[in-house]
Design goal:
alpha+beta; three-stranded antiparallel sheet; two-stranded antiparallel sheet; 3 helices; 29% strand; elongated
Length: 92
């Protein structure tokens, strides 16, 4: 899924939206992103980067503090990959 950043920012900052409408827009956006992550899809925001969801299987690992072996349930892990444009802006 790719979010059109320009249109999103124009809509939110246009001043034509009430506080309730901005809150609904934010809630809808985050819900849409959560649905994508649950389906293990990535969400790309042009000029910012991509959030990538990957499924991690159930696994046994050792707790470094206690040395005790623990069983971790399966989960979805998110990672962030910045866009090339953002990296260039940050590093100069």
């Amino acid at each position: 899924m790719t979010i059109d950043t320009v249109r999103l920012l124009e809509t939110i900052s246009s001043g034509t939206l009430s506080a309730d409408q901005r809150a609904d827009t934010y809630k809808t956006l985050t819900q849409c992103m959560l649905d994508c992550f649950r389906n293990e899809d990535s969400v790309a925001i042009p000029g910012f980067g991509a959030f990538v969801a990957e499924k991690v299987a159930e696994h046994v690992d050792t707790d470094p503090d206690t040395g005790k072996r623990m069983l971790y349930p399966p989960c979805v892990r998110l990672s962030y990959q910045p866009s090339v444009l953002l990296r260039k802006k940050i590093t100069g």
